Amino acid sequence: MSTPTQHSQDLLSRIQPAQGGREVLDPATGELVGRAPEASVQELDHAVARAKAAQPGWAARSDEQRSATLHSAADTVEAHAEELAQLLSREQGKPLNGPNARFEVGACVAWLRATAEFSLKPEVLVDDDSGRAVMHWRPLGVVGAIGPWNWPMMISVWQIAPSLRQGNTVVIKPSGYTTLSVLALVDVLNSVLPQDVLIAVPGRGDVGEALSRHPQVDKIMFTGSTATGKNIIKSSADTVKRVTMELGGNDAGIVLEDSDPTSIAEDVFWGAFINTGQTCAALKRLYVPESLYDQVCDALTEVAAKMPMGVGLDEQNVLGPLQNKAQWEIVDKLVTAAKDSGARVLLGGTPDAEAPGYFYPTTLVADIDPHNPLVVEEQFGPALPIIKYTSLDQAVEWANELDFALGSSVWSSDLDRAEEVASRLVAGTTWINKHGAVDPRMPFGGARESGYGLEFGVEGLKEVSQPHIINR
């Protein structure tokens, strides 16, 4: 098992309060990780004022200078990758290996570098005898970023990088569950950023609400639950600030009859169980044709049974605990309801109540009613319902009937047919023969109650910019 390095401990000491603060416990072991500071609303006001004062100077830098600064930010995150990954593993619970802590820090580097290379150039709209009109993209001002606990570092970078690239400054409020991880990331980034361009303000819900209401905050970017997102939208309404909402998901995957169960099993597994299922755009309900049902169930069970779950700092593990007790209870409640309804548990389903940490075993549930709570409610954990269908039209109808529409996937050996089925699904993104494969070059966002606005790529830059048309 890895042990925290001295560099990791040094980083932790820089972000902890000199005294007081809130205890942060490892969700895998219950051991003390450190103490998180908690700011007041008055401290948030001060942070916003500093960010607002710093913004004109940052915006005055050239496009090339801001790009170079983001590349420097990527370099310094990469240089501190191991200590960041260790702290993330201890606080969030995710293992170092697999698509987890080291992967997440690597994604921070990749997104910073990719965003540094995107650029919004002025666009000539009209240039003829009637006149000339050019659309420019100006910074909004101060962006308020409110992030989640499941991918705290990576999603923070999704909010920070485009905002800074376009000349905004950022005040970020970390989740109360993963405060230290985000503070550590910001500490590393601020070693190369100008003063007050990026400020982290940890705090309770009143701080987040104050940020969303703040009259000097020009934009809110939020990733998290739909319920919290609705509250933020309401809080932001009085100041008519821009918002980007990446909210809850209950992503459907549809397997077509021409699929090879063995060849897709591992990709389906990771589509569902990446970060131990704690991902908005994870595959959360799988629809399988009757002709392949038993084969898919067997192939998935074989793959899932081989994936080691345990303490994150143990190098062999690729699945970890649920991050917090509340989420563990949601997963347990939904799986229990499925079992009580007569659904068949292929793997897992019975947690060890005496074991330390918030571990829930990797769980596959078959022969389940398509409207069982485990299917229609977002479980956000390591439990996948597998639903049998006899009609593709019925599977598409089931996939589209929920209020959530973040992602979806189609699994088939016939790519043209898969694309035809994909076109019938309601979602922000539909993947073919993969799931949750986000890319910094490709815009990402939800439909219905999974949110609105786009992140990533040039479209993501537009979301943190004010279009300004000069017409002469």
UniProtKB/TrEMBL annotation:
Record keywords: Oxidoreductase
Domain of life from the UniProt record: Bacteria
Residue intervals of the Aldehyde dehydrogenase domain: 22-467
Cross-referenced CDD domains: ALDH_AldA-AAD23400
Active site: E246
Full protein name: Aldehyde dehydrogenase family protein
Compositionally biased intervals (Polar residues): 1-11
Residue ranges of the region described as Disordered: 1-23, 55-74
Species: Nesterenkonia salmonea
Family of the protein in this entry: Belongs to the aldehyde dehydrogenase family.
This protein's record includes keyword Iron-sulfur: no
One Gene Ontology MF term: oxidoreductase activity, acting on the aldehyde or oxo group of donors, NAD or NADP as acceptor
Lineage, broadest ranks: Bacteria, Bacillati, Actinomycetota, Actinomycetes, Micrococcales
TM segment ranges: none
